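TEACHING EXERCISE
Course module: macromolecular assemblies
Task: Read the component lines below, then compare them to the predicted structure of the full complex.
Student: A.B.
Group: 4
Components provided:
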Amino acid sequence: MDTKRADKTLNIDYRFPKTGWMDTPVEFKQGMFCHGSKPKDLEAVGFPNPREWSSKDKDWKLPANWKEIVLNGMKERLDKYRSFKLFMDICVRCGACADKCHFYIGTGDPKNMPVLRAELLRSVYRRYFTLSGKLFGKTAGARELTEDVIKEWWYYFYQCTECRRCSVFCPYGIDTAEITMMGRELLNLLGLNTNWIAGPVANCYKRGNHLGLEPHTYKSQIEFLLDEIDTLTGIKIEPTFNRKGAEIIFIAPSGDVFADPGTYTAMGYLMLFHELGLDYTWSTYASEGGNFGFFTSNEMGKRLNAKIYAEAKRLGVKWILGGECGHMWRVINQYMDTWNGPADFLEEPLSPITGTKFKNSKTTKFVHIAEFTADLIRHNKLKLDKNRNDNLKVTFHDSCNTSRGMGIFEEPRYIIKNVCNYFYEMPEDTTREKTFCCGSGSGLNATENMEIRMQGGFPRANAVKYVREKNGVNMLANICAIDRAAFPALMDYWVPGVGVTGVHELVANALVMNGEKERTTNLRSESLKLATESTEVTEKDKKQRH
Amino acid sequence: MGISFSLLAVTVLILIAYSGVKFAGLHFFFGVVIPYIAIATFVIGIIYRVVKWGLSPVPFCIPTTCGQQESLPWIKQDKLENPSNTLGVIGRMALEVLFFRSLFRNLKFEVDVANPTEMKDESRVIYSSDKWLWLSGLIFHWSFLIIIVRHLRFFTEQVPSLMRLLENLDGWFQIGLPHFYVTNLVVLLSVTYLFIRRVIIPQVRYISLAADYFPLLLILGIAVTGILMRYFSRVDIVDVKILTIGLVSFRPVIPEGLGIIFYIHLFLVCTLFIYFPFSKLVHMAGVFMSPTRNLANNSRMQRYVNPWNYDVKVHKYSEYEEEFRGKMKKAGIPVEKG
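Instructor-supplied answer key:
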């Protein structure tokens, strides 16, 4: 999709095809899917069936016994995951989920209704695992497993961001994220992944982060940010890397270290920790909080995640502090300790500044930086000058994973309200547990699938547009690295003039540091004098980004 | 296709009961054998399903959190929407099972433009509350439950006082005799609504299978035959009681004078019982086992164990350092081996 196109029309056709969904073949539409995985990336982690292939080819070069692999894989997973088995059985097709999916709202494609996305898999389950399906076939909603079904799975299970919004509305809590995860696991048994996911997974496995930054590059990237901070504040910060004996290890999504506007958030972390005099270290080995393995299979998620505890143990730290990232926190909250715990070599996290014990992370020993900073502010440990964010009218996007897989709603809001004078909420049906996905989560933030990203992100963008028009909002804050990577394109397309920021960039703007020179600009080198003249700022902001 | 198939199935069921009793005289078969089979199938079937689900573990703690987590002491936790202990989970499940909490959240979206299929830059999506599904679902399930409980009077010699109270409440709207039960009307209306919405809402129609229409039509058949018996083609309650008490005391007797409608009603009920465990209707049991609802969001506080957790191949630090040692040293990053 040309993101500069003047006529921004989605042309959504909500009418349904004349044919039933089983008789409507999948059509691979340009811009709606990612490139297929490359053999070298599958080989790097030992995934099956590495080969050159393209989703546009007729022949996907599946292994000869592909059908057996998939059916055995399904059987295995039905026995291992109650969620999977239960969700295959109890859906009553009431339709409550149908219009809750951002991809359905944005595309009108019936197979993007969560219930139908699940039926793609359920129909095969019925045919091979239930008596009624074996006896009555199509009448019972069952269908044969064919190569076309596999292609349809690939197309639609990589058109779901595992955001769990549908699960909030389902009377039985059926979670499409669970279904999509199982679907993707099955596809991965055949070597069917996307380049945008398999690449980062391979990178992260060998080099410690999705971007594949080698240790010296990772360090020099952070040093570049230190120079920026020096220019801004006149303060020289010297963080440590892979340092044994530090009290805390800090784990951030690597996107924050590498790409704008996430880098401003990383500068925020650095400035905050320096000001506190925190005894902490970065790690180049565990240099990724995010986990694209989680978008592949449970096992791969665990393999990538293992590094964090291993590194914490090697360095002998007391506890772990985690940066702003969405799916990273779903993993920490709901998977990490189960996968790679117990972290009995760590101590129950205690803020060295306030003495607060973070009781809610007693077993994982992993504290969210929003919890950490909210606690600091509550105890008056930070000197903040809110006026330095007066050029910003901020709204907050609740990231899917931290909302529906954790429930961290008040902490970031409390921080924002303490560092910004102008904060506005989006309509309540689009925030908190009902928040809309950025449209690019779970490994969908590539460029070749820009069409689906803009369509899937439409409901979110539309709510931003509402507060832009009503309150003059010009900054979209969030606590997710994928959001920071994905939103700039979405905002430029649907709501030009709205920038994207992490919460700790806002904190750093307001943070009055000991010995700093008078600040004339914010972290983005935008003049503070411009304050309140929002349109000028956002124009500059746009230039800055491009 | 699903509708006609289901309509046909229910018609055939009615005809089976009709001809079986009327022409073949199989009163004992339809009055005693089938009910026993139905009850046995229902009980064993439900147990089988629950055990089968139960055999699959819940490897991860995956509640869908719908409110503020337990966090710092001064931040108010939403204990029902994001419970962190068993008490909270019980509360959350109670809200879900008794009041359909999640359906209550239901929203519909509309696009505020002249042509809703064309979403332009200036289009606005509006979300508004849509409680019809919740309302119809809730009153359907509750009326159905009350009706079943009312039917228990047939199975006891003396009618318990609690049941009398329930009957009196249900029958508050009295027109003549017998008492008119509100639930009879409500169940009829709500099932009809649920059927109609399935047909007219395009999204729901598109996803509907025969397995979705059939139970609705079956229940409609049960309700209609029941109402016919109570208000129009009266059945002698004493006769019904002779049959039911015979059934529960395992000394089955077939009384004379039970009309054909009674046998049709009974046969449809039996079909529902037999069909129940093998269909989507097991959501009744399944909802209690849903891991996104019945788990506390406390996996950061308490260790959650996956019974099949296994060791995986990881890229160890030593391998990493081996590959990058030179570069790390040059960049001043500490290494293990000089």
